[in-house]
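Reviewers of the previous submission asked for a worked example of the structure-prediction workflow described in the proposal, so we include one complete record here. The input consisted solely of the amino acid sequence. No template or homolog information was supplied to the procedure at any stage.
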Amino acid sequence: MWIRSQNKEILVKAVCIYLCGENHICASSVEGNRWYIGKYSTEEKALKMLDMIEKFINRSFMYGYQLGGVFQMPQDDEVDE
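From that input alone, the workflow returned the following structure tokens.
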């Protein structure tokens, strides 16, 4: 899936998205590069972001094929705990 970083400086085709470090969300590319794509003030907000990404992925599949699109990481103050 394509994902744009919170600071809008990175657009990565991610094969793995995960919680890393101090409430960071990281993404790995197929080449094995790791990118910090978002930072949140609490672990709860970071986990909520993973939930939002999961929902985006689930919605992007329709009848067995991917519709596509880019997920934009929201700012910390845009995520409710």
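The helical segments are 43-60. We consider this example representative of the routine output the project will generate in years two and three.
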